[in-house]
Structures are given as structure tokens and as C-alpha cells.
Amino acid sequence: MTNVKHSDIVRVLTTSAPSSSSADAEEIVRRYYGLTATAKPLTGERDQNFLIATDDARYVLKATNPAEERAVTNFQTEVLLHVHAVAPQLPVPRIHLSLEGEAEVLVDTGDVQPRLVRLVSFMPGIPLASVSPRSAALRRNMGRGLAQLGLALRGFFHPSAGHELLWDLKHASRLRDLLVHLEDDDRRALATRAINRFEEHVLPVSPRLRGQVIHNDFNPSNVMVDEHNHERITGILDFGDMVYAPLINDLGVAAAYHLGDSDTPLSTAAELVAAYHEVLPLEEQEIDILFDLITTRLTMTVVITGWRAARYPENRDYILRHNAMSWAGLERLSRLSREQGRDILRGACKMG
User: In 3-state terms, what secondary structure has residue 42?
Assistant: First the structure.
């Protein structure tokens, strides 16, 4: 296999985000959107984002990473437009069209490569990542919200839906090339066992699973909740990791961020799974590998973020925001056998 550090699949992760200034962003929204506004930089992993504030509204200006193919950006744009059309009740960002009626604008800033920008609505609330403790009601709302999004995306397709992304669970085997960056022998062994189990139990059945476009990154940093009612979801953000994949992968990603810190770490994640199952019933084969997918997502998080933090130390805090939690969850889940984990999640679906 091609060394992952040089593969096209990681090119976007190894290319720096655009370097526009706040003044550049203000000029872009004035020239292309007719808005007089102030711009403030926001954190981001691959793209460059700005909070755009006018006298009566707030938006987010997204400057796409130059390594991202134009068609992949359009995939994300079309998904947002599709969700607005079929499920307008879902709290996802709305595309704000330019003065020329365009959802995407190619901006000539005098650089060698023009920058593709989009203006979307700013989602109210606070990041779920900042909320602690989190209630069972919130986790149930998360499960229902993700299932509703899955139903909204059912039947949607785009020519770039099959693009390759390192954060895609389908490609978890490619993490082997990055295991060398884990200096701790025990942790490297733990990550290796998770990848081995993925290859043994998930890969053989994947071609037979339900497939569709999925969000693929339903983590607490990408979900906004009401500032005064933390159980109410006010925003689902960041559609930049979407892929066409087995539907169950979406739930495996989401559940990985809701493990408990007790001797029964799956009990809290099971609440999210049960609520998802009520809205979008899981098939038996999907339930059978869900535990494997959860551990694989945790492994993916610690391996990729550890590698990227070493490569981009200036963005280390943002990149590693889920790293410690993921290691802790992976270590707790390692105390369960595969059969135990599978039975807990199967029981949650029957209860749901």
C-alpha cells in the first residue's frame, strides 16, 4: 500500500488552510454578497472560517482548503441545499447566495490560485463540547437528530460522494502506516488490536450493508445546543467529512463520543443508539458490528490527531480536542470482550 503520508487521501489534511485576513473576508462579503460587516477568525481543521457580523445578522464565511477538489466542495454545498429542501426542520446551516445568485464563489485575491468561498448562516447556541454533564435526554435527542439526518440524506447522491477521505471508517486499515507515531508501546498495541478487529469483523460484511451519504462527523464540536436548555439541539455543523459509506458508520462515529467514565462505558452511548433505532431501525448485521465501529472510530481519532498535531503544532489544541477522551474511551472499552459490547448494544436496540 502507498505510504499514507504521501497518498492523495491525506493531501487535504497536509495542506495548510487559506491565509486570508479579516480585512480580506470583509471585502469579500462586501463585494460578492453586498454586506457591510465585520469579520472575526474562527478555528477550523482544514478550511479557514470567519464569523461575519452585520447590524442584524451573523454568518460564517468558509474559505475552502486549496487542496480540496472543487467537486468535493460542491458535494457539501448540494447536501445542504438538499436537506433544506426535504427536511427544513433540521437545524443545518443555510447557504446564503451571492449577489449573482451563486452558492459558491470563486474569489480572485491576486494569489496564484483563486479561493472558493461560501457564506452560510451562523447557527445559534453553544457547542455541545462545552456542556458537562450531559443528560440522557440530550443523548436521546442526539440519536434522534442523527437518524432524522440519515433519513433526509437517503436517496441523495453526488458524483463526488465516493471521494476518499482518511476520516472515512471504510479506510481504517490505512491507519497502520501512522501507528509508528504512537510512542507508547501499550497504546500502539491497543490501536493495532482495534484495527485487526475491524479487518476481521467489519470489512467482510461491509459490501452487504445499507449504504448512503452520511454526515460522518457527528461529534460534540459539530453540534450546537441551546444555551439555556442543553437538551435542545440548535445546530448541526461541519459537513466537510461526508462520504458515501455504510449507514451504520454514522452511528458508530457519533456513539464513540458518548462513552461513560464508569465500569460500564457503553451505557451512555447505548441511550443514543436506542433513540436512533427508534427513528431509523437498525438491521441485525449492523448491530453486530457497531461495537467494532465505535472502537475503530476512537482509534482513528487518536492516531490521526496525534500525527496531525505533531505536523501542525500551532493548531495543536484544536486538533487534539478529542484525543484524551478517545484514549480513555478506548482503554475502557478494551476491558469488554467483543461479545459483551455487542450484546449491550443489541439490548439497547431491543429496549428502544
Answer: strand
| Per-residue confidence band for 8, with pLDDT thresholds at 50, 70 and 90 | very low
Q: Specify the higher pLDDT residue, 139 or 183.
A: 139
Phi/psi for 243 (5° steps) reads -150, 165
HSE-up (13 A, CA, CB side) for residue 45: 22
CATH class of 127-351: alpha beta
CATH of domain 12-121: 3.30.200.20
CB 87 within 8 A of CB 98: no
Q: How far is CA 272 from the centre of its chain?
A: 16
The CA distance from 118 to 38, in Å, is 16
Strands 38-42 and 48-53 come out as antiparallel
By CB atoms closer than 10 A (0-12, 13-18, 19+), residue 233 is buried
Taking the mean position of all CA atoms in its chain, how far away is CA 261?
22
Per domain, the residue ranges of the chain are 12-121, 127-351
Cell numbers found for residue 155 = 436517496
Burial label for 241, CB within 10 Å (0-12, 13-18, 19+), is buried
Distance CA 113, CA 136 (A): 48
Give the phi and the psi of residue 40 in degrees, each rounded to 5: -135, 130
The string of DSSP codes covering 107-150 is E--SSSS-EEEEEEEPPPSEEGGG--S--HHHHHHHHHHHHHHH
8 A C-beta contact, residue 258 and residue 276: no
Per-residue model confidence as pLDDT tens digits over 220-231: 999 999 999 999
pLDDT for 20: 79
